[in-house]
Design goal:
Blueprint: H1 24-50, H2 55-76, H3 80-106, H4 127-141
Helix pairs in contact: 1-2, 1-4, 2-3, 3-4
């Protein structure tokens, strides 16, 4: 039987915050995992087959994949350190989707091919825009 540490035990009498990996947190981790897989696959194919056509877009897709992967792992793990990493990943994701989304609208020449975050994630039904907001909300509710 694993030894319990202060980091993974919850005193239900004093702790009113749910665990970030329980309930809706599991769904959030699953969605992030799907996006990590989708963004990684997309970036790998784009970079390996047509990098010369739109290097900025493809590097940004790869960066988005890394952010999604980091967010997935951090949201799935317990502890204050992982909570902070998840907060950072969701914040970077929101900043990225807002920045890339805006630039892709106003400077179409810089983005001849779409990224995961182009036009605020339009190619993914705007989920990349909504996902970090939900993630940040969930992290606020589950702050250790």
């Amino acid at each position: 039987m694993p030894e319990e540490t202060e980091e993974n035990t919850v005193d239900t009498a004093t702790d009113t915050h749910p665990d970030k990996t329980s309930g809706p947190g599991r769904i959030l981790v699953a969605v992030y995992a799907i996006f990590a897989l989708a963004a990684t696959s997309r970036a790998a194919v784009q970079i390996s087959t047509k990098f010369h056509e739109a290097p900025l877009a493809y590097v940004l897709s790869a960066f988005a994949a890394v952010v999604y992967l980091l967010a997935t792992v951090a949201l799935a793990r317990r502890g204050a350190g992982w909570w902070r990493i998840a907060l950072l990943a969701c914040g970077i994701e929101l900043l990225g989707v807002l920045t890339v989304g805006t630039f892709s609208l106003f400077d179409r020449a810089a983005f001849p091919h779409a990224t995961v975050w182009s036009v605020y994630g339009q190619g993914y039904l705007f989920i990349p825009l909504v996902l970090p907001v939900i993630g940040l909300f969930w992290l606020r509710r589950t702050k250790p």
